[in-house]
Amino acid sequence: MTAKYDLGPAAEQIKTLIDGVTDEHLDGPTPCAEYTVRDLLGHLLGLTAVFRNAATRTGDTAAPPEEPGTLVTGDWPARLAARLDELALAWRDPNAWEGVTGAGGVELPSSLAGTIALNELLLHGWDLARATGQPFRADPDSVRASLEFTELVNSPRWTAGRAGLFDDVVEVPSDAPDLDRTLGLSGRDPAWTP
Predict the structure, then answer these.
(1) Which of 74, 75, 102, 183 is most buried, by the most CB atoms less than 10 A from its CB?
(2) What CATH class does 8-138 carry?
(3) 122 pairs with which residues across the strands?
(4) Annotated domain spans of the chain
């Protein structure tokens, strides 16, 4: 049986964080060394469209642009909030989790695409919260699903290769909270601050 996750709580957390992003934050650093806050928001704008289309099997599922910050124009908060809603709704359809789809220019099992989408929302929600000095409230089910995914990616069973998905693992205590373990396995330091 294919695991099906609700992307809604992770999407809602990002929508809450959007309200706390100011123009002064946009050029600031994030836990993703290659991204400013503007780039991170642009990445979220791109990935929400790609993974929504992967769920519905319509539209463009190519990779988001190489310069994601260029997407942060006009009323980007409203566009991102709408895309987050559309993404969560698309993955609530049980058929979205069945068969094969495409995302980022790669064909993959739909269940894996949905799991990756959830992982992206959780991790980048945390990135955005940290970068903008806001509290992050992680949904326990989303954390568990993301931890299982990051453990898989870091296991010998994962044949696709870890490179390009995450930075080097950051060691955290084995008894650390699940969110911290997920962050460490994804190459993030749970103690990161701007």
Answers:
(1) 183
(2) mainly alpha
(3) none
(4) 8-138
